[in-house]
Amino acid sequence: MIDLQSSGLRVTLLDPRADLERCGSRYCVGGYIWQITDDVHGALLSGPQYPNPNPSPFDGQGIPEAFEIALGQDSAPVGEDVWVIGVGRVKRTSPVKPFHVRNNFVVTEFCPWDVHIELAVCTMVSRQKFQGWDFELTRQIRLSGRTVTSKTSLRNLNDTPVPLRWFAHPFFPHAGWPCTRFNVDCDLIRYLPLSGGFTIDSAGQISRSPEFDWKAGCFQLLNLPFGYPLEAFQKHPALGEVKVECRFPVAWMPIWANANTVSFEPYYHSALPSFGTAEWAMAYHF
Fold first, then answer.
1. Is the pTM of this model over 0.85?
2. Mean of the pLDDT values across residues 67-95?
3. 3-class SS letters over the chain
4. Between the CA atoms of 16, 59, 6 and 231, what dihedral angle is there, to the nearest 10 degrees?
5. What is 173-190 written as a DSSP string?
6. Please, what sign has the CA dihedral across residues 234, 101, 260, 255?
7. If you average pLDDT over residues 272-279, what whole number do you get?
8. How confident is the model at residue 205 (pLDDT cuts 50, 70, 90)?
């Protein structure tokens, strides 16, 4: 693993050259924040199976990020490979349509990464080619004081557009029943069946319901003014509150929790045009 340190924080990243046993078909391998540790308070992040030291690669822990659209998924039959951006070749083992990594776990080849570390900045770069696609993915994790910035850049190297649907999945420990609030208006989506685990008050504070059985987990879509960057304020048992900046136009936002963790999931959705470049970032203020 790779450690970055500053101002009483240690950011631990998975090394994409050495920690592949912790990686699977779901999360981007480069720039995977596995844990953030405070010199005084200890580990600050959680996960669906936390504190299990060896969670399943699908569940993971920390602050993973994922590219949800697999390249070639519309034409690949069962038994052939698709390409998951930031992961590599993934075998289609399930006939379930549309393709999703939750049904297809077999990575046949991880993509290569070049890793550069300078002071408290780690940059990981991967050139990825599959069928007609050719692009360069850069993941940079920067620790400045007590702010952790996770920046992603994707550069299209030919004239084939790259479909792009990405999300961050930061896993936080529970700090009681209150969870998250945003700097914009927010509500539970009322025109869909509510999953019953979350409530929201007049001030926009999202909380877990004490009556819900959290062992199985709960997934809830949120109604936000999408298309803008936004800020989240996450309750934390050791720090009180963690401010998170989504530095991109958020396209979709669910919140998910189980008995071990809670996570809001901001999505970025676009299509990278011929020879185009996209860049976006998340910033966590601890």
1. yes
2. 97
3. CEEEEECCEEEEECCCCCCHHHCCCCCCCCCCEEEEEECCCEECCCCCCCCCCCCCCCCCCCECEEECCEECCCCCCCCCEEEECCCEEEECCCCCCCCCHHHCCCEEEECCCEEEEECCEEEEEEEEEECCEEEEEEEEEEEECCEEEEEEEEEECCCCCEEEEEEECCCECCCCCEEEEECCCCEECCCCCCCCCEEECCCCCEEECCCCCCCCCEEEEEECCCCCCEEEEEEECCCEEEEEEEECCCCECEEEECCCCEEECCEEEEEECCCCEEEEEEEEEC
4. 120
5. ---SSEEEEESS--EE-T
6. positive
7. 97
8. very high
Residue 37 lies in a domain: yes
Number of folded domains that form the chain: 1
**29-69 confidence digits (pLDDT tens):** 999 999 999 999 999 999 999 999 999 999 999 999 999 99
CA dihedral 58, 60, 65, 67 (to 10 degrees): -10
Domain that holds residue 26: 2-141
Q: Residue 183 falls within a domain, yes or no?
A: no
Neighbours of 220 (CB within 10 A): 20
Residue 193 lies in a domain: no
The HSE-up count of residue 169 (CA atoms within 13 Å, CB side) is 23
